[in-house]
Amino acid sequence: MPPFTRLTIPDLLLEEVIEHARSEAPNECCGLLAGHIEDGVGVMTARFTVANDLHSSTRYETNARDLFTAFRAMRKDNLELLAIYHSHPTSEPVPSLRDVEQNTYGETVVHLIVSLAGAKPEVRAWWLTEVGYREAEWSAV
User: Fold this and answer.
1) What is the pTM of this model?
2) Residue 2 — very low, low, confident or very high, per pLDDT cuts 50/70/90?
């Protein structure tokens, strides 16, 4: 069972995620979103950029040093990891089979995917399970 039922993302953080996706194109970007859980809602307050060690347009692998730095900052500020984000530069913002297979967090975090395939970026959020995914409820505030 997920630790929260929906997410809220400040507009500024959402714009930063989208800008990160644009700046890394044509490769996938990746990063972490953290904050607090309040009354069953994940309230995001911080973003952590993580390098994609694969430098690939279809896959990402998080940089270990960047992850260590991000988790240290989260611990220092008493924040919880709420979401992992990455981009799909040329495809829809739907989890790929690889995204599902490589999910190591179960349903403890949401996976936010930014698609740059259309005229405007499209963002969708997902709970990934061992065998698939379902859409997560989220809103920009």
Assistant:
1) 0.96
2) confident
Q: Read off the pLDDT band of 29 (50, 70, 90).
A: very high
Among the listed residues 130, 132, 136, 122, the one whose alpha carbon sits nearest the alpha carbon of residue 84: 136
Quick check: 130 pLDDT over 90? no
Q: In 3D, which of 32, 93, 107, 94 has the Cα closest to residue 62?
A: 32
User: Out of 28, 80, 122, 135, which one is annotated catalytic?
Assistant: 28
Domains located in the chain, CATH noted: 6-135 (3.40.140.10)
107-129: average pLDDT:
97
* C-alpha closest to that of 9 among 138, 112, 107: 138
User: Does 28 participate in catalysis according to the annotation?
Assistant: yes
